């Protein structure tokens, strides 16, 4: 009986983590679609979401800044650590090692990311650059990228 309960609990835990991951993916898709409309860009610009590419155009930078804002990563013109922690919690659940690693990366990015006043949508580029430089440790990007 105890073995059955343990297996049932493990199955529920896997389903819960999968549900959180599915919810994150749903939010990402909705944010991407909303920003495509708001920024008036096509799939060519939005494709940056599925790559490790640093934005090279203003359209890509503004799209990313919009996207990060919709996910709660940007607030008041800067990287929002609380929003980042909420996403990490949803993605990693109670995995303390991954949560600590994510927290360290977001703190590092918070220090590195400064909105470039002379560059329109510079925050989108700065956040992406930090994620590209530091994100492999927690697989911010899909493994195939």
From TrEMBL:
Q: Mind listing the GO molecular function terms for this protein?
A: odorant binding
Keywords tagged on the record: Signal
Q: Name one GO cellular component term.
A: extracellular space
Q: Span of the secretion signal?
A: 1-19
Which SUPFAM superfamilies does the record cross-reference, listed alphabetically?
Answer: Insect pheromone/odorant-binding proteins (SSF47565)
Q: Which residues cross the membrane?
A: none
SMART domains found in the cross-reference section: PhBP
Q: Which superkingdom heads the taxonomic lineage of this protein's source?
A: Eukaryota
Tell me which Gene Ontology terms the entry assigns under biological process.
sensory perception of smell
Q: Does the keyword Signal apply?
A: yes
Record's protein name? Odorant-binding protein
Which taxonomic lineage does the organism of this UniProt entry have?
Eukaryota, Metazoa, Ecdysozoa, Arthropoda, Hexapoda
